[in-house]
Amino acid sequence: MIKQEHGRGTVNTRALVLDMLLQSESGREYCNVIVRDTLAKYNYLPVYEKAFIKRLFEGCVEYRIQLDYQINVFSKTKTARMKPVILQILRMGVYQILYMDSVPDSAACNEAVALAGRRGFRGLQGFVNGVLRTIARNREMLPVLPEEGTKPMQALSVRYAMPEWLVCLFCENYGIQTTQKILAAMLGAGPLTIRMDERLSKKDQKTVLEQIGQKGIAVHKHPYLDYAYDLSGVDGIVNLPGFEEGAFYVQDVSSMLVTEAAGISEGMRILDVCAAPGGKSLHAAVRLHGTGMVESRDLTENKVAIIEENRARCHCDNMVVRQQDARVLTEEDVGQFDVVYADVPCSGLGIMGKKCDIRHRISAEQMGELTVLQREILDRACAYVKEGGVLIYSTCTMNPAENEEQLPYIMSKEFVPESLAPYLPKTLCGGTAKQGFLQLLPGIHETDGFFLARFRKGRK
């Protein structure tokens, strides 16, 4: 797939994806950053070309485990012994054969062979051609999976392209049937969810949503919250009607529930200690109706700049942004806030459907280190809550060690869990919600994987 643009030279989209995959393998950049930067650089390409680049790159990363298994089934030379460029070219070819119906098998094979030659591997063009054409001939039986009866965890790992150790972790905590639903949901291409600015009238909100729909985007109201909508078929959120004006903010419903659970009322002082990109802080500021104050903090200058950009776009004048290490106590702020959000750094297992490389980057050792960091941040966050105030603890993961197992530590700081039932949609108020915490699971709930808990300081 080669596109000639007047005055801009020739762009070979598959070669571009190959470079992106090699960059992602280095581990220096997250995949969403690679996609963002690449599409910005080649923004002049037609929409379908940019969609092809994004789909092929993210698909190869997301399905890497399954793609490698298929290659190993049909290749005498195993993936562990292949040159990185050849391995990525094969992954691209297999993904197109398996999952991109708009690409003829012959095109997937021929372009892969040509790409290998252009990258200096003419001697391996026959190998690339042979592997891909063998896979194409057997496409009706693909994907080949391990025997479920004797290797159930490996079979799930290959079927859903998830590292086996994570499959085992989910099965241990949620059972095999729920795990299958979780894994299937994270492989699906889910909608983009937006939170409409509640300061807009219902009429104005409806107008913006109608304008979005006129762009060929499917708009559906989310079942949990009146101001949340799912969008399908979006190509570039910044180009949507209402974005620049701050009429809506891209945010998963699970994240919106943090502000619902906080029970915010006018005049409150609210602190968000790990705020980037700022969605929860913005939501809290909106709920204050121009009163009170939200202080939104994060660690780096870059993250603070992102929050500030979103604050300005969404016209939240009762919100201040500050660069601050959440592990460092600010003495003058001790006991000064009505509500503190502690949405702490976590393993991100709940958003693997949106950030496809998390599954390849995270390790059990890193998850253990994160629980220590979370407690460091909690030590400070708890100190900022005034007597009788509220702490909301949340993560975007599905690992009990980072979630339920942290709750006793918070309680040891003289915090008491409070029921979430008065604050959340009724459909979410079963199970543990009345005990003060909730684990959301993709495939079970219509959200990302997310955990939240509500605590009151000092009340017995």
Q: What does this protein structure show overall?
A:
The model is unreliable at 1-7 (pLDDT under 50). The protein has helices at 13-25, 31-41, 47-62, 64-74, 84-99, 105-118, 125-137, 152-159, 164-174, 176-187, 202-213, 253-262, 279-287, 301-313, 358-361, 364-384, 407-411; strands at residues 2-5, 9-12, 192-196, 218-221, 228-232, 248-250, 269-272, 293-298, 319-323, 337-343, 385-395, 415-417, 437-440, 450-457. The protein has four domains: 2-141, NusB-like (N-utilizing Substance Protein B Homolog, Chain A, Orthogonal Bundle); 152-187, no CATH class; 192-250, Sun protein, domain 3 (Alpha-Beta Plaits); 253-457, Vaccinia Virus protein VP39 (Rossmann fold, 3-Layer(aba) Sandwich). It starts with a strand and ends with a strand. It is an alpha/beta fold and 460 residues long. The strands form three sheets. Strands 7, 8, 9, 10, 11, 12, 13 and 14 form an eight-stranded mixed beta sheet that branches. The protein has a four-stranded antiparallel beta sheet with strand order 4-5-3-6, with helices on one face. It has a two-stranded antiparallel ribbon with strand order 1-2. The chain is 43% helix and 16% strand.
CATH topology grouping of the largest domain: Rossmann fold
| Beta strand % | 15-25%
In CATH, the architecture of the largest domain is 3-Layer(aba) Sandwich
Name of the top-level CATH class of the largest domain: Alpha Beta
Task: Report the strand count.
Answer: 14
Main sheet properties: 8 strands, mixed
- CATH fourth-tier homologous superfamily of the largest domain: Vaccinia Virus protein VP39
Q: Give the number of helices.
A: 17
Q: Radius of gyration in whole Å, from Cα?
A: 24 Å
- Helix/strand class: alpha/beta
Provide the helix percentage: 40-55%
Distance between the termini: 66 Å
> Averaged pLDDT, please?
94
**Low-confidence parts:** 1-7
